[in-house]
Amino acid sequence: MKRTKLPNAMVCAVVLLCVLPTALAAAVAAASSLPADSNLAAVLTKIAAVLTGRHAHTGLEWTAGSLAMVTFALACVYYGATRNTMIPALTFALFLAGSTDAIRGLLAAGDLADWPGGADTLALLWTAHRSAAAVALLVGIAVGSSRRPLVGSRSGAWLSLILAAATALLCYRLSVLATQVEPPQMIFPDSLLPRPYDLLPALLICAAGLLVARGPWRSAPSPFTHSVVIATVPLAAAQMLMASGAIEPFAAAFNAAHLVSLAGYLTVLAGLCLELIDTFAEQHATLDALKEAQDRLSDQAAKIVAANRELERTMAMRDAAEADRVQAERALVESERRLRAILDNAPAVISVKSLDGRYTLVNRRFEQIFEMDREQVEGRTDAQLFAAKMAEAYQEHDRLVKEAGAPMEFDETMLTDDGFRTYQSVKFPLYDARGNIYAICSIATDVTERRRAEEEIRRSNEELERFAYVASHDLQEPLRMVSSYTQLLAKRYAGRLDEDADDFIGFAVDGANRMHRLINDLLEYSRVGTRGRQLEPTDAEEVLQTVLADLQVAIEESGARVTHDPLPTVLADSTQLRQLLQNLIGNALKYRGERPPQVHVGCQRSGGDEWTISVRDNGIGIAPEHFDRIFQIFQRLHGRNEYSGTGIGLAVCKKIVERHGGRIWVESEPGRGSTFLFTIHGSEAAAYAS
Predict the structure, then answer these.
(1) Suppose 363 and one of 350, 493, 500, 576 were both cysteines; which one would form an S-S bond, judging by CB atoms 3.0 to 4.6 Å apart?
(2) What CATH class has 451-531?
(3) How far apart are CA 240 and CA 257, in angstroms?
């Protein structure tokens, strides 16, 4: 991917190069106020020795000139490769600034006292050179914005180099002449801005930076145009540093300004290098793509030859194909007639609607139910054919099917000659060859009588549950009395009667206790459907930890080892989920063999938002013929002397799972343990259920 700007690290480095020399110059200026024997004063004196002096100035000026010349040469190479006038037009200004820096370095290598103006002449040269470079940058923006090559690529590159050399010679000649005349006063030592004329180049440079940012960089962002924008910061900063503190030639502030401007040259050179790297990489990729296209073109030519031969054979087969087309059209007509016959003789109400809700097809049953001809229906919407409330319901169901992109079932009310009837409508989207939905099909069946029967069954079940609940409560009182008196009889007369009497009393106490447990289990079974709380997102992991804590004593007594997978958050009644897991894990601990129980609670996603949770043990196992029987109420596979219980636990589990919209089953072999599995919806189903 081609870059559009300089890396952030490079921008930060430019800012640091702007700040660091200025800070060093300020520190050197403040060194005179420190004690001469302090370490800081010694360090600052060394820094001043590096920053100040004619040799440091000459080195900075010639370094700047070299960077500018290399940058302009690379820009000419870039123009020769791309014929893009923007880069040589902008780098010409940098070349002008760098070459004049080298000229000043050359002229200032002598004694300034030989110049009529001395330091003022050097300040005038700096201001004039920087102003000329800023004007050249503005002109380069205007020329480069056209993006039209002025001449051919190769001749344009040489012409640019020749023009740059001529400009450099002209600047040198003018600079030499400037050193031989008396200049105006350029430096005002006692003023707030000792060199105010240096503000003009700073303003021109800032204006150029804004123009590049709002023009070339905005229209065609690249590392080079971004580098020009960033380079105006150190160049303008150098002008401000020169204007505010560069009174003495070759002093720390004077040379620091040259060092800051050097950061601007480096920034443009770095941006141009990145631009060249990206451009040449892009050209290399283009050449590879051209070669690949040429190879494909050769393949296509061979294919065209083969296609021509195939076309000749196709033309010979055209008459036969035409005959086949006519036959296919006849077959299509016959197929449409068969489809219409099937639709019109189907007992269901069938219709097809376009995505804007207009009927495009209805069958004869639809016409009979609503007493409308298909000519009256097709092309109209539900709002034009039915009562507002019914139409809104039909349209809402169509919208849900279109959003889901899958079949959905709805109970819809339809007004017929027999009054309002309930129809179970299966609606599903129809897709075109491109996989896009273009219509909604509806197949509706009259389920009025079935819904009435279901309602009767529901009411009957509710009454049966209420009966079981009331009956169980009414049995509790006499049972408590029988249990209390038989226990009292056993306590008072145990050992005082004969052995048969003790056995009889024991049988009575045991029977009363078992009857008490049976009634409690029956109550528990009846409460699954009547006392259940609303299903809500429940952390199954937390529920399992509670169950294991409740069964801790049984786990320790049996020497069992219980492990589990991470359990998800599910849509459940937390109390009933706890009861379900406790029954299954409790059975695994109860129906164990000679080995210590090994129980594992597993979990895996079944598909969509459904989870399958399993409880696997190494117990006595179950024969396959008893798989269905064990989930029926009061069904036991073992005698009470072998294993305690009432035979209701798994029936309660089945009822809890079914209340949660899942199913439960067992996988087992005698002597090899059992695995009880049940499905349950994940927490994401809560939003859909709402």
Answers:
(1) 350
(2) mainly alpha
(3) 8
d(CA 409, CA 607): 20
What integer pLDDT is reported at residue 689 of this predicted model? 44
- Mean pLDDT, residues 680-684 taken together: 81
The CATH number of the domain covering residues in 346-446: 3.30.450.20
- CA-to-CA distance for 26 and 547, rounded, in angstroms? 75
Element (H, E) at 487: helix 448-493
Specify whether the backbone of 435 is left (phi greater than 0), alpha (psi in -120 to 50) or beta: left
Partners of 605 in beta bridges: 611
Which helix (H) or strand (E) segment holds residue 102: the answer is helix 86-107
In this structure, which topology does domain 534-690 adopt according to CATH?
Answer: Heat Shock Protein 90 (3.30.565)
Which burial class, exposed, middle or buried, applies to 465 when counting CB atoms under 10 A from its CB (0-12, 13-18, 19+)?
middle
Mean pLDDT of the chain: 78
The answer to whether 66 and 265 have CB atoms below 8 angstroms apart is: no
Q: How far is CA 535 from CA 2, 87, 453, 644, 656, in A?
A: 54, 69, 26, 32, 12
Most confident option among 60-64, 199-203, 495-499, 562-566: 562-566
Domain chopping of the chain, boundaries: 10-278, 346-446, 451-531, 534-690
| Rounded-to-integer distance, Cα 168 and Cα 102, Å | 10
Q: Residue 677 pairs with which residues in a beta bridge?
A: 614, 665
CA-to-CA separations, 641 to 403, 447, 645, in angstroms, rounded? 59, 51, 10
57 with 108: CB under 8 angstroms? yes
The answer to whether 162 and 96 are in contact (CB under 8 A) is no
The separation between CA 271 and the C-alpha centre of its own chain, rounded to angstroms, equals 33
Q: For residues 110 and 460, what is the distance between their CA atoms, to the nearest angstrom?
A: 117
Q: What angle do CA 73, 287, 146 make, to 5 degrees?
A: 50
Instruction: For 335-492, list the strands marked E by DSSP.
Output: 349-354, 359-362, 408-416, 419-431, 437-446
Residue 455 burial (CB < 10 Å; 0-12/13-18/19+)? Answer: exposed
Tell me how far apart the alpha carbons of residues 351 and 366 are, in angstroms, rounded to a whole number.
8
pTM (two decimals): 0.39
Give the 3-state secondary structure of residue 417. Answer: coil
The pLDDT tens digits for 374-396 are 888 889 998 888 888 888 898 99
The DSSP line for 43-90 is: HHHHHHHHH-SHHHHHHHHHHHHHHHHHHHHHHHHHHHHH--SHHHHH
Query: What single-letter amino acid sits at 372?
Result: M
